Amino acid sequence: xxxxxxxKIKVSIFGESHGAAIGAVLDGLPAxxxxxFEAVALQMSRRAPGKDPAATPRRESDLPKIVSGVLxxxxxxxxxxxxxxxxxxxxGDYENLxxxxxxGHADYPAFLRYGGFNDMRGGGHFSGRxxxxxxxxxxxxxxxxQRRGIAIGSHVLFVADCRDTPFSPTxxxxxxxxxxxxxxxxxxxxxxEQKMRNTIxxxxxxxxxxxxxxxxxxxxxxxxxxxxxxxxxxxxxSSILFGIPAVKGVEFGAGFGAAELYGSQNNDAYYFDGGTVxxxxxxxxxxxxxxxxxxxxxxxxxxxxxPSIAREQDSVDLKTKENAKLRxxxxxxPCIVSRAAPVVEAAAAIAxxxxxxx
Length: 358
Ligand SMILES: Cc1cc2nc3c(=O)[nH]c(=O)nc-3n(C[C@H](O)[C@H](O)[C@H](O)COP(=O)(O)O)c2cc1C
Ligand SMILES: C=C(O[C@@H]1CC(C(=O)O)=C[C@@H](OP(=O)(O)O)[C@H]1O)C(=O)O
Prior knowledge:
CATH architecture: 4-Layer Sandwich
CATH topology: Chorismate synthase, AroC fold
Keywords: Amino-acid biosynthesis, Aromatic amino acid biosynthesis, FAD, Flavoprotein, FMN, Lyase, NADP
Binding site for FMN: 125-127, 289, 304-308, 331
Number of domains: 1
Shape: globular
CATH class: Alpha Beta
GO molecular function: chorismate synthase activity; FMN binding
CATH superfamily: Chorismate synthase AroC
Structural class: alpha+beta
Bound molecules: flavin mononucleotide, the ligand C=C(O[C@@H]1CC(C(=O)O)=C[C@@H](OP(=O)(O)O)[C@H]1O)C(=O)O
Order of helices and strands: EEEHEEEEHHEEHHEHEHEEEEEEEH
Number of strands: 18
Distance between the termini: 30 Å
Largest sheet: 5 strands, antiparallel
Organism: Caproiciproducens galactitolivorans
Catalytic activity: 5-O-(1-carboxyvinyl)-3-phosphoshikimate = chorismate + phosphate
Radius of gyration: 21 Å
Helix content: 25-40%
């Protein structure tokens, strides 16, 4: 298993959900960058489990312990390593799952791939818990980007069929992004939150789960970053976004909707705003030819419903080689999407910093 991503700034994620700790190593950070650890803790707490009725009840403080790479509050240029302890594991819930794998989770393919030697307690290295170190790495990268005028934010656009107001593709104020980062369930339209929460609770009560979509925006990104073919913004962002457990789709700008438009509708007409070239619309999501246009980068990541549901399901007993019934026990998110919003932002920060000249 290799869980490293990035070339210029390489992020390695290690650990398992029910092991002693999880963590991240960041290689290639510039030296001398001041790090605000309160801001890092804020990002970590946005994702942390056990804090919201729409989330798993597993409680973890998720305070990262810095092992290396920082001195007197600044990066030293050496690999930055952070450890996050696992303090609230309950591995008994997973005892039967290697024999009778959960539909929708990684249990069966991971058993085949690693010959049964992988730690499958709590989903092991496949767990959504591994997004905690990703958020740590993203929190470091976003501070470096922030200092260069770039802001990142997101909201829950959908939970099942409940929809929030989307971002305006051309005008995304920084105070909106800040407000979204300050609440546990980020939505633009507060009425949408209640509908979404009701839908999640209804699914949970029915021993079921729901999925949804996170919409993310990056503002202040200079024009001219990226490149054609495989090194462009879309392929680089997508490659890290699809590494987030349960992400099943990524679209930029008008995305799949662009396929239904005429060229005259889809093209974003340019105009001069003072000396700056801007576009009147932003179906491109701030990217043309894999290169930033200077308009906000806007993309969406779709999350499937949480696989571990309490309802009885059909599975197989890998030992007896017979069909079997499975009841999953344990503490699971009835919906992943609100906790995934800061994870999506973190992935975007890591992707962008890898494409920039700092
Ligand atoms: C923040 C976060 C929390 C998650 N919580 C759960 C959970 O409580 N229970 C669960 O079965 N899956 C959860 N998942 C999803 C699984 O980890 C994921 O579906 C599984 O590893 C299989 O990967 P795949 O869906 O990408 O194929 C979570 C994912 C994320 C990003
Ligand atoms: C612990 C976290 O989420 C976990 C993600 C997860 C999964 O299968 O992905 C399953 C659950 O693990 P456990 O059974 O140990 O409670 C979640 O609680 C976290 O996000 O920090």
